[in-house]
């Protein structure tokens, strides 16, 4: 079994957000650059993660992305089930349908193996994935050279 590219990107984005300070609030473009994925793909994935309650996204000055508490501590197995969908590993009913489907045991065995895969991930969370040695590497990810840095917000008058 291989995870879809979209799920791979979602995990990278969530892991990157998990190691940043709560005040960091990077943009989707900044996170995409840091984890090495195209902005357009990252934007679609961020939208999906937002819909699932894993990522919070705010627009405008002071906006950006952050990992929600549920995103940090929720079950990794549940998240992958949501991202991947829990369908058959093999396409027994695809066109043309497999002629062995009425007598084949493979479909059931693969479904059991798929559930065992997800069950192994159930007790883990995104927070578990970012401990050493991954955490320091994720913190060290920077924008590609040549990309202009995001301007710092200008502080308002004090006093």
UniProtKB/TrEMBL annotation:
Pfam families: Rrf2 (PF02082). Its cofactor is [2Fe-2S] cluster. Keywords: DNA-binding. PANTHER family: HTH-TYPE TRANSCRIPTIONAL REPRESSOR NSRR, WINGED HELIX-TURN-HELIX TRANSCRIPTIONAL REGULATOR, RRF2 FAMILY. Gene3D superfamilies: Winged helix-like DNA-binding domain superfamily/Winged helix DNA-binding domain. The gene is nsrR. InterPro entries: Tscrpt_reg_Rrf2, WH-like_DNA-bd_sf, WH_DNA-bd_sf. This is Nitric oxide-sensing transcriptional repressor NsrR.
């Amino acid at each position: 079994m291989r995870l879809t590219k979209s799920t791979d990107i979602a995990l990278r984005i969530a892991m990157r957000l998990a190691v940043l300070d709560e005040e960091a609030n990077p943009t989707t473009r900044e996170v995409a650059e840091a984890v090495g994925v195209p902005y357009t793909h990252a934007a679609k994935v961020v939208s999906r993660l937002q819909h699932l309650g894993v990522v919070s996204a705010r627009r405008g000055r002071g906006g950006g992305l952050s990992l929600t508490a549920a995103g940090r501590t929720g079950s990794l197995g549940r998240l992958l089930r949501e991202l991947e969908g829990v369908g058959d590993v093999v396409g027994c009913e695809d066109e043309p349908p497999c002629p062995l489907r009425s007598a084949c045991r493979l479909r059931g065995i693969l479904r059991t193996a798929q559930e065992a895969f997800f069950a192994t991930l159930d007790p883990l969370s995104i927070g578990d994935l970012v401990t050493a040695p991954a955490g320091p590497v994720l913190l060290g990810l920077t924008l590609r050279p040549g990309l202009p840095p995001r301007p710092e917000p200008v502080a308002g008058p004090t006093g």
